[in-house]
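Anyone able to model this chain together with zinc ion?
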Amino acid sequence: MQYLTCDICKKMITEPLRGKNYYTLKHRHMCRKCKLTIERELQDKAEMENKPYDFLEKKEEFWLTVDKKCSK
Ligand SMILES: [Zn+2]
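re: yes, here you go
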């Protein structure tokens, strides 16, 4: 069976379908759950700072957060 491992939670993603149950950012793979968790964190942060959440604007921040979580 084809599978991938999420770089953040290290869980196996069985039958990976890009954009559906996993996402690739630069060379990292992440499962849907981890992507949503990070998005949520950034959204909450933006809300606390009273700023609108703009994914494109937050792309670099998103990547840095992913990178940080992967290297833990
Ligand atoms: Zn994950």
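Residues 6, 8-9, 11, 30-31, 33-34 surround zinc ion (CB under 6 Å).
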